[in-house]
């Protein structure tokens, strides 16, 4: 009986496609835009259905599509509502998780006792209070900000259901390194052969979206991601993770995989250089420092450190005086105080009295371009913070910036604790990779609002879910 029902279902699907093909062709012949919209809608519905059926697969589909959405937007030639697409995929994946009742190992997570999760709850309460902030209380602006926060929390919660063993964790890192390597390859192609015609057309059509992309030495490469800053931050974090994995013994990580890691590191290193993200350049030695302090007795660690140090010295002091990428890297470490830094320092000093006078901040979405859009005339409107911590204290007060800092501290502490408690060299190195990359992210927050960028927030919340879940998976293993 089951086989008959299955065959009937297949027959209905085939008949549906047979009917749809001529219908879509006819509609497209009348109006191309409507035809394209129908095709995209059908494909989108099919992808959402897959996410409902298999929420684990949906988790990876959400990450992949979110990362390449800017590329699809540029190919389309017009600005799209990418947030609606992300919400649709995430809600479909969440629905699939609810219908499947998730994973039983989630019950081991102490949701009401875990310090990192409690910090998220407190931040959520703070955001809810912000809706009544007298300095900035436009509900629509608050809703947009809170919607992004809820999206991140749903993604984090789904991760707690997806990562049910160290095998799942290793699968994620294989996927993440692969997709970041693909982004690096695309970035290298952009640098070597120039931007694609649709990318040049999109930049010409929406120049305000690429104001920080055009610099004196050329174009900051952004790959298929939204901008060069988020791309550079992800490359910097991923390079450290790959370098840490490279120190594993041959018994645990064979020669073939190490060669692939080296190729990935080289490509991502080039891509980071082409991105022109000076914050990313500074992030690398910081992440490597935590790694060195933790595994200094490891011979492979010392070799990696020597190779990294030698490469850095060659880039900084080598006879390369006409390469724009190398010159920009040098300015991150050897450059004098430039005009942009002077402007940033001046803004910080000028706004300090406002911080002291507003313990709850000026309200979410009140700084920078968002403030100019939603709160014209606000004291913080169009103030370019260029600093995640400064933005947090200006918009949400001292409690907000303390919670942001606490989140990073607790996440790094959990990852380091996992490193010393978990078994298996590769598993331990993955936990150390999380700690080092998150320390990089915490540093990047000082130079720009790194954690709220779409791509970097995906990485941050995925690694947060892994660190939390592994903490309780290890407890589960020791009990058994």
From TrEMBL:
Q: Which keywords are on file for this protein?
A: Ligase, Membrane, Transmembrane, Transmembrane helix
InterPro entries recorded: O-antigen_ligase-rel_domated, WaaL-like
Instruction: Give the transmembrane region(s).
Output: 7-28, 34-52, 57-75, 81-99, 111-133, 139-163, 175-193, 213-246, 258-274, 303-320, 397-417
Name the Gene Ontology molecular function terms of this record. ligase activity
On whether Transmembrane helix is a keyword of this UniProt record, the answer is yes
Q: What is its main location?
A: membrane
Name of the molecule in the record = O-antigen ligase family protein
